Amino acid sequence: MRVLIAEDEVLLRRGLELMLLEAGMEIVGSVGDLDALLATAEAARPDLVITDIRMPPRFADEGLVAAAAIRAARPQTAVMVLSQHVQRRYAMELLGVEDPGPDGGVSRMPGRVGYLLKQRIADVDAFVGDLREVAAGGTAIDPEVIDIMVARAARSDTAVARLTERQLEVLALVAQGRSNSAIASSLFITEKAVVQHISRIYDALGLPLASDAHRRVLAVLRYLSRGAES
């Protein structure tokens, strides 16, 4: 896998380089600002871009802007955005799940995207696994963002509030992009039980069953966004 890293903190950038090289990935670029990120992405055409959200010149949302531009130019390029703090809005923008309008929200960019807190890098195996999942066409969203969205939706939406504690746990893992087998392993239940929980959750939320993993993640995130304040 050919990877481009964009991070203005030199030590973290170097650490990412070493980590990914040890994981068997090829580093095609390692940069520290928005202009260099966009130029290198165009020239090197990486399979995966890992970028901080805030970087020079404004230290605002440059990484998010770059992610959108890179995906618009080359939809097959996967993007993993890293953040120092939980920002639900960033996750929604990246995944293409807008806060609801008259039509209840839209999905623009399913798959090949991820949003994680930088602290997740410490778990090397899990982080590398998330990178591979995103590069393969999946999604990865930080559990802390999901927890915030589920908690807010449970307080503000009667449908989510009616879910059982176990169903809320399953819902959170579905929103993270976990497969049924991974959810079963995490909760120490059978995969058949997971399927039953998901079916009941979808019924309670009025969501259609989706065979495609990305669609089911986006459907859940879109629903949760209705009960979560920015």
TrEMBL record:
InterPro entries: CheY-like_superfamily, Sig_transdc_resp-reg_C-effctor, Sig_transdc_resp-reg_receiver, Tscrpt_reg_LuxR_C, WalR-like. The modification 4-aspartylphosphate is found at residue 52. It comes from the Bacteria. Residues 156-227 form the HTH luxR-type domain. Residues 2-133 form the Response regulatory domain. PROSITE patterns: HTH_LUXR_2, RESPONSE_REGULATORY. CDD domains: LuxR_C_like. The keyword ATP-binding does not apply. Keywords: DNA-binding, Phosphoprotein, Transcription, Transcription regulation. GO terms for biological process: phosphorelay signal transduction system; regulation of DNA-templated transcription. One of its GO terms (molecular function) is DNA binding. This is Response regulator transcription factor. It comes from Leucobacter triazinivorans.
